[in-house]
Amino acid sequence: MGEAIERFFASLPARAPAVLRGPIHGHLQLDLTTGNRTEHWFLVMAPGSIQVSREQLPADAVFTVSADLFEGLVTGREQGLAAVLRNEATFSGNVVLFLVFRRFFPGPPGVRDPRETAREHVRRSG
User: Fold this and answer.
1) Interval 24-52 mean pLDDT
2) Quick one: which of 32, 34, 112, 121 is 20 to 30 A from 68 by CA?
3) What is the dihedral of CA 100, 4, 63, 94, to 10 degrees?
4) How confident is the model at residue 1 (pLDDT cuts 50, 70, 90)?
5) pLDDT at 20
6) pTM of this prediction?
7) Which residues, in sequence order, are CB contacts of 61 under 8 Å at separation 6+?
8) Closest C-alpha among 65, 95, 100, 18 to residue 73
9) Nearest to residue 1, comparing CAs of 63, 53, 67?
10) Which is nearest to 61 in space by CA: 46, 34, 39, 43?
11) Beta strands in the chain (DSSP E)
């Protein structure tokens, strides 16, 4: 498994208070495949917190994706919903968990938040 993926999962608990602000509760399993091998990650999501383990437990939703594509997701080179629509990844169960989880993925490299760009423009103009 790539170092970017390991860092991504390690960062989730610290980032959860900013990302998981709404009323979200559920168990999400991520299955990362490489050839005929599958690595499981199990996430317990609640408002402001996320617990990460390598267990395979009953989940409310399962996201299955190749490890290579997942590395693209965690580095911002790929988009999760687009991968599902292209049938390069599958999702089953409570779709809300996936929609909330994808907020942890970064935007494409070099892309800036338009609100920050507008603030900078106002500061320069003012």
Assistant:
1) 96
2) 112
3) -20
4) low
5) 95
6) 0.83
7) 26, 27, 28, 29, 91, 92, 93, 94, 95, 97, 98
8) 65
9) 67
10) 43
11) 26-34, 37-46, 49-53, 61-66, 89-93
Task: Please enumerate in sequence order all residues whose Cβ is within 8 A of that of 20, keeping only pairs 6 or more positions apart, or say none.
Answer: 45, 46, 47, 48, 49, 50, 100
Structure letter (DSSP) for residue 106? P
The two structure tokens encoding residue 15:
């980032």
Tokens found for residue 108:
């494409």
Dump pLDDT digits (tens) for 100-121.
999 999 887 777 777 887 888 8
| In 77-113, alpha helices (H) | 80-85, 95-101
Token output for 17 = 């208070």
DSSP assignment letter at 77: S
Question: In one letter, which amino acid is 81?
Answer: L
